[in-house]
Design goal:
Number of helices: 11
Largest sheet: 4 strands, antiparallel
Distance between the termini: 87 Å
Radius of gyration: 38 Å
Strand order of the largest sheet: 5-6-7-8
Structural class: alpha+beta
Strand content: 15-25%
Shape: elongated
């Protein structure tokens, strides 16, 4: 505290509101019970002489917040005027709300201007005149779709104060641990929701899918969709860390909730959320295997024998190195012809010099092992006569 007092004395010199800055050891400023990973960041004794623009922004932000702690609180007076119009066609009453700043206090430091509406000084039962009026109609708009950024923010605070990122309510929620997940798990949670199919992305927006809507509408344990419930669980974990709540009581709470939830789910009626029809796809046989006679079929990485489970190793790889040197890949049509005739004419091969040429290709078994290799035969075509391979 002594260090903080000396720093404050250095910083407040020559400020126009110097006499309003008074060091105090109040709990509003110094509260060890709220210190977790580190203590507060404050300026040092040294006054900076030369700072870059960005450094000055950071320094002034820390300095001003430090000074504000030791200034009077901002006080205002709130006023509500209730007005009734003496006309048969105009029913109901009109409320006018406004605030008047009585003490500016800490707002002086960063010259924070009040956005409050100032009301005239009136007395009860005063008669007022309608100077002007206009009628307007409005159509309410549905809430905007969440983006990953806004959803992460809502998860951080369980929806508390998310409309105003600087609200005291929101900051209190963050500091108290009233949240969903941790910074390390929130992004992964959103990814899992996408992978399962509960939400999907449209441009930057996150959209709930039909499957996601159905599970929310039909799942019997409604607490699992309640932000308040989830937030309280996370808050309890935070309280355990601060030794405000016992681990045993929390475990008992979870066991009791899980038991009741499982019984509720078991007793609920069965509902089909998503029907997946599996249609059997006919596998096209491209020809007979030259080794065992079984059918050759197309796979993800190559054209292989359907008898591979029993040990047949025949395959023509789609990324075959020999063909790739001539900038070609085996096609389904090419494999069919090769299996039928034992040879296939391939057009548009590329030589090392970059010339195009045609050739007959065979795929023959090596005499020394069970593997196959390509054999190439040049053919007399107009394309080859033009190219100097």
């Amino acid at each position: 505290m002594g260090k903080a007092a000396k720093v404050l004395d250095n910083l407040k010199k020559d400020l126009p509101y110097e006499n309003e800055i008074n060091f105090s050891k109040t709990k509003r400023v110094f509260d060890n019970s709220k210190v977790e990973s580190h203590s507060a960041i404050i300026p040092t004794y040294l006054m900076p002489k030369s700072l870059t623009t960005d450094e000055e922004i950071v320094y002034n932000s820390i300095k001003n917040r430090f000074i504000m702690q030791f200034m009077p609180v901002a006080e205002y007076e709130e006023t509500i005027i209730t007005t009734k119009v003496n006309h048969s066609d105009i029913k109901g009453i009109f409320l006018s709300k406004g605030k008047v700043q009585l003490i500016e206090g800490w707002k002086k430091v960063e010259k924070i201007e009040s956005k409050d509406t100032f009301l005239p000084n009136v007395n009860i039962n005063d008669i007022v005149n309608i100077v002007d009026y206009n009628m307007t109609s409005h159509v309410t708009k549905p809430p905007k779709h969440h983006t990953e950024k806004t959803l992460l923010r809502v998860m951080e605070t369980c929806g508390k104060g998310h409309e105003d990122e600087n609200s005291e309510e929101m900051m209190a929620a963050v500091l108290s641990g009233f949240s969903i997940g941790t910074p390390a798990t929130r992004a992964e949670t959103i990814k899992k929701l996408k992978d399962v199919g509960y939400i999907t992305s449209q441009n930057k927006n996150l959209i709930c899918t039909e499957l996601g809507k159905k599970i929310v509408e039909t799942f019997p344990v409604k607490q699992l969709f309640d932000l308040e419930f989830t937030g309280r669980l996370e808050k309890t974990l935070s309280d355990i860390e601060k030794q405000k709540f016992s681990k045993e009581n929390f475990i008992n709470l979870i066991v009791d909730f899980t038991t009741k939830s499982v019984n509720t789910i078991k007793g609920d009626k069965d509902i089909i959320l998503n029907e997946v029809s599996k249609e059997k796809r006919e596998i096209e046989v491209l020809g007979k295997c030259p080794v065992c006679g079984h059918g050759i079929i197309e796979g993800t990485k190559g054209f292989g024998c359907s008898n591979w489970k029993n040990g047949c190793k025949f395959v023509i790889w789609k990324n075959d190195k020999f063909l790739s040197t001539m900038k070609k890949k085996p096609t389904k049509t090419m494999v069919k012809t090769l299996l039928k005739n034992g040879v296939v004419q391939v057009k548009g091969l590329t030589s090392k010099k970059g010339n195009k040429f045609d050739a007959n290709l065979r795929y023959e078994k090596n005499p020394d092992n069970d593997y196959f290799s390509w054999k190439m035969e040049f053919i007399n075509t107009p394309q080859n006569q033009k190219s100097n391979v």
